[in-house]
């Protein structure tokens, strides 16, 4: 028996003209320049570079028997690669943006499973819920109440939230570890109950077995295999594994937070009729912010997630094209009177996120005044 989520409806009408014109202009860019909207040679090269920095250091740990400090350095390098693969490789593939061939998208998207996650669950949480109902409390799981962390003005508030602006980063550090240990099971059960997982019982049994076997292999490879092959103490391996996940967790969490939970973005709620105040495309622009658009190093590493506006409007376009289509999106938004939110630097975006966390920890004025 399911408890299906009743989704809110987006406004229809004149606002739809904006996205129609924007899509025409963006499609025109690719047509006029005779280029594919999918991955190019630079994207393929990035894929192999990031996978190399994930697999290579681990092979070195197994075969070269480095000392403790060198070993920790290799685990740290793997943490940077985990975040990079998550943002730059699996993200595009699981959106269907990497290739026009769905088989290639599935293969490259499987890199998420190599990082300890489940591509199936991620597509529901991210592609369906987050990308459709961005910053809508109760529907976007990325801002769901985490008890000790509050990411929406419509979520319950506790006294501890007053201090969340500095302890939040500790919780960010366990993101990938929680993902590997328990998140997929929680989502598997939750998505079935909510009616978001539309698999047959036979398909879900197969999915559950795949997820379970994948988790067992993941933890065996990273926690047991190094001890068996290189004979290093288990606590070395455990510390390295935790370091890898802490680095990856902080980077992934911060990058995603800078796009939606900042001072500039809105958190719309449906009215009594279940309708949101804007059309879908306008909703995306009001709930999403870019950052560091002119920093090529950040753009390369975070997979264009600093061009979050372009990504939310065109998730099936590979991120390597975002710097070129961003001026088209910005100009069209200005023409139609739609906000185009942006923090020029990473530091500005991070400051805005911290200020947002502080704001979410302070009771509303009407509560203070009684």
Strand-helix topology:
Elements: H1 16-33, H2 41-64, H3 68-88, H4 90-94, H5 102-109, H6 111-114, H7 119-132, H8 164-172, H9 175-194, H10 201-230, H11 234-260, H12 280-287, E1 289-291, H13 296-301, H14 308-313, H15 322-335, E2 341-343, H16 346-360, H17 365-368
Parallel strand pairs: 1-2
Question: How are helices and strands ordered from N to C?
Answer: HHHHHHHHHHHHEHHHEHH
Mean pLDDT: 92
Query: In order across it, which strands form the biggest sheet?
Result: 1-2
Radius of gyration: 21 Å
Counting H and I runs of at least 4 residues, what is the number of helices? 17
Strand content: under 5%
Structural class: mainly alpha
Low-pLDDT segments, ≥5 res = 365-370
The total of beta strands comes to: 2
Shape: globular
Biggest sheet record: 2 strands, parallel
Q: Distance between the terminal alpha carbons, to the nearest Å?
A: 43 Å
Helix content: 55-70%
Report what the structure shows.
63% of the residues lie in helices and 2% in strands. It is mainly α. Helix 1 (16-33) runs antiparallel to helix 15 and helix 2 (41-64) runs antiparallel to helix 3 (68-88). The chain is globular and about 65 Å long. The termini are far apart.
